[in-house]
Design brief:
By secondary structure, the chain is mainly alpha-helical. Helix content is 70%, strand content 1%. The protein contains 18 helices and two strands. It has a two-stranded antiparallel ribbon. The longest helix has 29 residues. The two termini are 13 Å apart.
Length: 411
Amino acid sequence: MSVLSRRNTDEPAEEASRLLLRIGVFLLFVISLIAPILARQTVYVLLPIGAALLLAAATLTPEEGSGRSMRSILLSPPFLAALLLAAWTALSLLWTPFEGPAERFAKITATLALVALATGFLPLRTKTSNLNLLPIGVAAATIALAAVTLLLKPQYTLDDILDVGPLGRAGLGLALLVWPAMGALAVRGRWYSAAALAVATVIACYLSGAPNGVPALAVGAAVFAAAFGRARLMAIFLAALMTAIVLLAPLTAYAAHLIWPERPPGFFRHLAFWGQMIEADGWRTLIGHGFGAATWGVLGGYLTPATPRSLIFKIWFDLGVLGAAAAALVAARTSLFVGQSRPALAPFLLGGLGAGFAICLFGPAAEQLWWLTLAGLDAIAFALVMRGQFRKRRPRLPIGWSAPAEDHASP
């Protein structure tokens, strides 16, 4: 009789590892994008749970080379630059005039450390079935966000007015995560699906009223178009541009104050106000007031509501020139690192980096925990896509893999 050869039954540990990995990716890139639209606090819970599931999956079946992958993450230039920024931020807590920033810094550090561990222990090759969950989650979130915005009347609290409401946060999260999702589709030849996802994200961001969400997508699209076919050159240019913007921002603000000392135009109003603060602070601008000083200063009434809300302002105001230099180094090294990915994928990742930098530049993203949580989720998405196994067709089975084997019975 003939018997068809079969694959050997997988080990229970491998099956459990695959299941945990699938659940973790599903939580991170489907549930974490949809749930915060209605419940703003869920993202703080889902990100640690999803990251912990990724770590548990890696622990059950450690891959050969996973230790080298973790070391490469910890020794990569972007991570070392981020470590330098974190160290200076921690040191600045010694002279910050408020007590609240220490607790926020501890939460931020714990969240980003978990993100770094989850990113380092991701599988060396992401299966297509797991990678598909990223564009599926982004597409589902765009539909949910548009539906909630159109069908329900949003109810805003005082915290939403002072910061950003759940719908705006969801829109900003889509503005970040749509780029790796489009990259995952495009490199497998699904260009029409990637274009449809981009259009849906623009519509959802516009309907949700996400602050500077649509301008950030426009910046990302410009970077993507410029990087198409010349990703490495564009990565170098983007790194230099972001470094110049971060380091020269105080000079631009002071120049705006000198040009318009009384009534600056609307676009330059916050910039000129920052220049006025620089004139009042003097050399203290180079040292900084300590982590969280800008945020708690506004909340305590020590700074006016006209104080700029962008991340670049808060880095300069809180951390001074050393913090700004470290932040510029993080942005530059990340751009160069992303530009070294495969040519078909790099333009999308550079576009996502440009969109994230635009949100940090224009506001309202700063050191809020919700924004850094979204940034951590985006970092995991970048790593997931960069390790993807991209095929446009199903691989052919090796010759003889499923050939029938004849068993000849003895006479």
